[in-house]
Amino acid sequence: MELTKETIQNLRQDYRAAELNESDVAKNPIKQFELWFADAMKAQLYEPNVMTLATADKSGKPNARIVLLKGFDENGFSFYTNYLSQKGKEMKKNPQACLVFFWAELERQVRIEGKVEKLDKEASEKYFHSRPKGSQIGAIASPQSQVIANRVLLETKVEELNQTYQDKTIPKPAHWGGYIVKPTSIEFWQGRSSRLHDRIKYDLINGKWQTTRLAP
After folding, report:
1. Are 125 and 101 in contact (CB under 8 A)?
2. Which residues are catalytic?
């Protein structure tokens, strides 16, 4: 198939898998997310915890990348990364973020906006030591987001660290740990036919969640 502007313009899918009504959703958006996440797990989707993390620097310039959800509860949505990475620096200067989940097979999307805070050291330590050894080594070896001369330097560093910690507990590096996005709004999107999608949004107002329907 020849790739043309028209080819791209004509890419479309008519969504008919389900619908989303105000009477069907949970009163609490965390519970509603739990229900949808369980559906994604049951459907055996590939890495259902994949999410886009969008941040912005102090001037408002946006940036986005894929990270992995590693936990959620009434307090918020958690993930782990290098504090000195680009996203880490942006979240330090502008502690606001947006998370986006897209489960294509279920024709569903969830958008979460909120304030970002670091998880406590104990939580980060516990998760770090639950990771495979290779991932622990990688967190130490990689100066995430920084320019490196070539991959050989990275692989050499990994080899050196593997030798150093061959029979030792690997300490969590000070520059690595968890964040939690504490939501102020959560939107659930269900694809519908003819682009008349269902959008139910929860907003945290005076400590209570309120729901509204948004036009597609």
Report:
1. no
2. 195
